[in-house]
Write a structure and sequence with these properties.
single chain, 245 residues, alpha/beta, TIM Barrel, 8 strands, 17% strand, globular, binds iron/sulfur cluster
Length: 245
């Protein structure tokens, strides 16, 4: 069925979770994983999906569609995650299929494709966007994304679009110890001031793409609580997602 989503460039689906209580706060969701990414974050947890998608078996859209039809009652929505879903110009076709099944949609994104975000929201194909903010918008973002010469204006445009409240949204920052300290929390807070939600995420070193990043110790509860207090100066709703240590 992948080929039926788009006749010209198939979207490979490389993972499917039937039921999740943690991928969309307040909703019971199913989760679809799309491979590949335009970033190369050294702390990426899904690096096999990003770097070696050919080693992961495809999931047939028909199987997912048939599951969603059967579970229509209690699955509220579908989360599209990755990898980076917006690298697929035909992402709208997948979202249209999900809409046909009368499900809500959430998109996880690194925000590097503001034009696609805008188009999908304008086409009413997306109910919720979760965008990563990996670092302040300066050379620190190149380290965090693993991309030299990153065009920060594209990220700024996505932030500005979300802050315009045309769609429900959250920003997410992974608390990678070598990249995020009090200073970075302040700087990011200033960039996303007034956002609907800001989620600080636990850093899980075990699965990081870069071996050096696997050696980093995640922050303790005391430090995370200090970050939360500082973050709430800029965004009213700030939460921590992950394990307390
Ligand atoms: S943007 Fe996300 S999926 Fe892409 S490399 Fe970074 S962490 Fe991994």
């Amino acid at each position: 069925m992948n080929n039926q989503l788009t006749p010209t460039k198939p979207i490979d689906i490389k993972g499917f979770i039937e039921v999740s209580f943690i991928d969309w706060d307040g909703f019971i969701s199913a989760v679809i994983f799309l491979p590949r990414c335009n970033f190369h974050c050294p702390f990426c947890q899904n690096w096999q999906l990003v770097c070696e998608p050919e080693k992961i078996k495809d999931v047939d859209w028909e199987v997912i569609a048939s599951y969603l039809k059967k579970q229509r009652q209690w699955i509220d929505g579908v989360v599209i995650t990755g990898g980076e879903p917006t690298i697929y110009p035909h992402l709208n076709l997948l979202l249209q299929e999900i809409r046909r099944l009368k499900k809500k949609t959430k998109l996880d994104t690194n925000g590097y494709n503001p034009a696609i975000l805008r188009e999908l929201v304008e086409a009413k194909l997306i109910d919720y966007i979760a965008m990563d903010i990996k670092a302040p918008f300066d050379e620190r973002y190149e380290l965090a994304s693993g991309i030299k010469g990153l065009n920060l204006d594209r990220l700024r445009e996505s932030v500005e679009f979300l802050l315009g409240n045309r769609v429900e949204h959250e920003f997410r920052t992974t608390l990678v110890p070598s990249l995020i300290t009090d200073k970075e929390i302040e700087a990011i807070g200033q960039t996303i001031k007034g956002a609907q939600r800001w989620i600080l995420q636990d850093y899980q070193p075990e699965a990081a793409m870069d071996e050096e990043f696997r050696k980093l110790q995640p922050y303790t509860r005391e430090v995370v609580e200090r970050f939360l207090v500082n973050a709430r100066k800029y965004v009213n709703f700030v939460n921590y997602r992950g394990k307390w240590r």
